[in-house]
Amino acid sequence: MALYTDEARENGQQKQRPVLHESKRVDYGALLRLGRELLQALGEDPDREGLRDTPRRWADSWREFIEYEPGVTDTCFSSVSTDQMVCVSGLRVYSMCEHHLMPFWCDVAIGYIAGDQVLGLSKFARIAHQFAHQLQLQERLGEQIADEVSRITGTPDVAVVLKGEHLCMVSRGIRTPGIMTSSVMRGVFRAESETRLEFLRLIGS
Ligand SMILES: Nc1nc2c(ncn2[C@@H]2O[C@H](COP(=O)(O)OP(=O)(O)OP(=O)(O)O)[C@@H](O)[C@H]2O)c(=O)[nH]1
Ligand SMILES: [Zn+2]
Predict the structure, then answer these.
(1) pLDDT 10s digits, 39-94
(2) Which residue, 153, 166, 70, 159, is CA-closest to 114?
(3) Mean pLDDT, residues 135-139 taken together
(4) Which protein residue has the closest C-alpha to ligand 1 atom 17?
(5) CA of 97 to the centre of ligand 1 (A)
(6) A cellular component term (GO) from this record (predicted)?
(7) Which residues are within 8 A (CB) of 179 and not within 5 positions of it... i.e. 6 or more apart?
(8) Gap between the terminal Cα atoms of the chain
(9) Which ligand has the minimum distance to the alpha carbon of residue 99?
(10) Residue nearest (by alpha carbon) to ligand 1 atom 2
(11) Cα 200–chain centre separation
């Protein structure tokens, strides 16, 4: 994925939309068949009124989830002043637990120390959605967001905190509501407790 900077824009370069990777495509025909089989396995008649379109809706919702396109995630601008801590918080994303294939939501907070390039504000949410739209673990989601922000901005100083609620714990199994908090602290956020505390204060954690 090419870095799109304001310098590139001045030079008249076009934004390149990331191409959907082959592994992100679902087998839609197989999903339709499975949707029908799932209804049968549940003891239902897939041809009864009310269920007739359900395999199609189910296949559509998996396709929408897996084939999510984040759009351009790497627009950067020359920074007016370096060394600022930038935090973006309250980004609500929906993902799917890879153990139970049940949804979980996360409120994501991202911080980084800006170098000579700052990342466009909306790109943090695009990056968070990009990695949420796959079968996931909350801890891996945080690591992947941190990796991507670090790669695009070129800074090792990145922090990501996620607060999530997992339906697999709330609606089945132990059936207990609870919030899981996970955090990734890299660079100065790991090395300096003052910087870490400033970040946690700024995101209201
Ligand atoms: N650490 C972590 N655990 C998760 C996440 N999503 C689901 N889990 C847990 O994955 C575990 C799977 O445990 P198993 O014992 O294999 O499955 P199970 O019998 O369905 O377990 P219960 O959910 O306890 O009924 C459960 O404890 C889930 O709560 C996640 O994002 N991170
Ligand atoms: Zn689960």
Answers:
(1) 999 999 999 999 999 999 999 999 999 999 999 999 999 877 678 999 999 999 99
(2) 153
(3) 98
(4) 99
(5) 9
(6) cytoplasm
(7) 163, 164, 165
(8) 33
(9) 2
(10) 137
(11) 20
Q: What is the pLDDT of residue 205?
A: 85
Tokens 């559509």 identify what position? 60
Whether the predicted interface score ipTM is above 0.90: yes
Domain ranges of the chain: 26-66, 77-202
Same topology, domains 26-66 and 77-202? Answer is no
For ligand 1, the distance from its centroid to the CA atom of residue 172, given in whole angstroms, is 11
CA atoms of 142 and 139, how far apart (whole Å): 5
Q: Does the pLDDT at position 16 exceed 90?
A: no
φ/ψ (deg, to 5) at 187? 60, -130
Instruction: Kindly report the protein residue whose alpha carbon is nearest to atom 13 of ligand 1.
Output: 99
Q: How far is CA 138 from CA 92, 94, 112, 166, in A?
A: 13, 11, 20, 9
Q: Which atom of ligand 1 is nearest to the CA of 166?
A: 6
Which ligand is the nearest neighbour of the Cα of 141? 1
**Apex 133 CA angle, 54 and 68, nearest 5:** 75
- Most ligand 1 atoms within 8 A of CB, residue of 168, 174, 175, 181 to mutate: 168
CA 81 to the chain's CA centroid: 28
**CATH of 26-66 among 1.10.286.10, 1.10.3720.10, 3.20.20.30, 3.30.70.330:** 1.10.286.10
